[in-house]
Amino acid sequence: MRFKNKTALITGASVGIGRAVALQFAKEGAKVVLCDVNYEKLKSVKEEILQYTNEVLIYNCDVSDEKKVYEMVSDAQEKFGTIDILINNAALWRCRGSFVNISTDEWKKFLDINVMGTVYATKATLPKMLENKWGRIINVASVAGVYGNANMVHYSATKGAIISMTKALAKEVADKGITVNAVSPGSVSDSSNPDINYYRESELSFMGRTGTNAENANLICFLASEEASYISCQNIQIDGCRKKQ
Length: 245
Description:
alpha/beta
């Protein structure tokens, strides 16, 4: 039980990678705090988790709302004592369009959720980690933030920002018992499929398939564990040997 006596907060936990991470943490003994804007799906994830632990809290929370994020973290810390592990997973991405056709409002929405949502959750949880001299922060970025995807400039920009934020923050807290890393998935299987081991064929990787939600969750949980205690300031691509775009 790698995460016994640890509490993990996962944002965007109702589907896909977030759901798979929540299930894996629960299986490995963690108390779990989950948030998402899709509260109905989040409730079904809680039901799945109850087979592993009763120590689960769920919150209907839009991470772009700073006040709600702080209220959620404060309530969870009151009930569970602390948050040791933060997985910043909540993000927008299903939006394509040429740079000239993406509106300013759309840019702001992506920045508010993908970047500022990560900032708010991190600022809310980091003080207790510093106090406890132990913490793990894993930010879910994307290969789009590494290579840049045409017709997804706004998404690519936000994920590039997350990667840079990860590396800068890691250097601030490296001597304080806290590691900060990012993972950058390539093509991931459809979040609508409940099978966390599902994958489909894909021409975007040399392996010829998408990554599964379970594979992404395994990497994230490794980075949150004591086994990864000397790993920080990294952006690890999990992309099946991706063909660069």
